[in-house]
Design goal:
1 helix, single chain, mainly beta, 184 residues
Length: 184
């Protein structure tokens, strides 16, 4: 009987040691949560941006602007902007815009509407490339002036030369008073 009691005590002690070992062993760590890119945002902001030489002024209003932590990019929701340059004012509206602060490029995703004193433009998307000073447009291009309307699928507008190239399914309408001679 003493042997059974000793065996029972030893078995119980072994079980306690195993339980203690299992309880104290290192537990597997949960995988770290995926890191979101750091950014900060502003709701219903308005911004005024002026070029270093004072020639260009942007007045921006938006539902939201989200800035990347590294300061290289910004995403703008429900953009309404006015650009003042060389004595002219240009209004731009787009549901979404992104800014590359390093390259100074702007991408507007539409429908995009642009309006100045002499011209209005619509497009599915527009991209301003600062280095080449070109405005590139994709899809649903429509340019309206006092003298006509031009539609197409792609746009290339080179600044400051003012050269406009529209490609793909191009249609041109001239409005009254453009090059027509009146009857005597």
């Amino acid at each position: 009987m003493a042997r059974k009691a000793t065996a029972l005590c030893i078995g119980s002690a072994v079980l306690l040691l195993v339980a203690l070992f299992l309880w104290l062993r290192p537990q597997p760590q949960a995988p770290p949560a995926a890191k979101k890119p750091k950014s900060w945002e502003a709701k219903q902001p308005t911004l005024t941006l002026v070029s270093p030489d004072g020639e260009l002024e942007w007045y921006l209003a938006a539902a939201q602007i989200q800035f990347s932590e590294d300061g290289r990019r910004a995403t703008v929701s429900k953009l309404k902007a006015k650009l003042k340059a060389e004595g002219e004012e240009i209004a731009v509206e787009a549901p979404l815009a992104s800014v590359d602060w390093v390259k100074k490029d702007l991408v507007f995703t539409g429908p995009v509407k642009v309006k100045s004193k002499d011209l209005s433009m619509k497009a599915d998307s527009l991209m301003w490339q600062a280095e080449t000073r070109q405005l590139l447009g994709q899809g649903g291009i429509e340019i309206t002036t006092a003298t006509g309307k031009l539609k197409g699928d792609k746009l290339l507008w080179q600044q400051p030369r003012g050269k406009i190239v529209v490609e793909g399914g191009v249609k041109l309408w001239a409005t009254s008073g453009t090059g027509r001679r009146s009857s005597p």
